[in-house]
Amino acid sequence: EVQLLESGGGFEQPGGSLKLSCAASGFTLTNYAMSWVRQRPGKGLEWVSGLSGGGDSTYYPDSVKGRFTISRDTSKTTVFLFMHDLRAEDTAVYYCARGRSGSQYYFDYWGQGVLVTVSS
Amino acid sequence: EIVLTQSPATLSLFPGERATLSCRAAESVFTSLAWYQQKPGQAPRLLIYDASNRASGVPARFSGSGSGTDFTLTISSLEPEDFATYYCQQRRSWPLTFGGGSKVEI
Q: Is the peptide bond before B95 cis (omega within 30 degrees of 0)?
């Protein structure tokens, strides 16, 4: 059974940093692209990072480029999101999502989400 | 960035009725579009990919159509569990983008 379990959320002040982790099980991480998608309170979905299945390409929207970094540790079957220079507008639930096989940037499995709150 | 505009923002229907949701792209995404369902407090669920293909386990009452800039998600006969918010998403170009969502309410 495919499972994604996020951790590492919490409260941080503006300008601070946080690391989110996504523990993946039930599939081989190196065969799938992975992404992080966030949802601000009461708002819609926003994709914030993508990592190719080969692990050699990363993608970001302008809103987080230079501040967020996605990576993975295949030995630990974990995907990470390193977030720096956090802003109030980064407050959101962050979901880890697996790209669908064959069409890697549709998301067929999602974690339960982890809340990040940025406030002074 | 490709902007996706969903309409209506809210759709009020009764169980058993047909729901028709629209997603319009600011430029062509060909058929590189997906639909998701999200219920309060839950993660999204993939319903449709490549505009018209149902994801695994999705009931046949859900169907997707369209290409280019205009797409439709149709729920042929609403079941109680279908009342939720629906999002479209394109993967034609970076950055990946989602529409603002359409809420289907009783």
A: yes
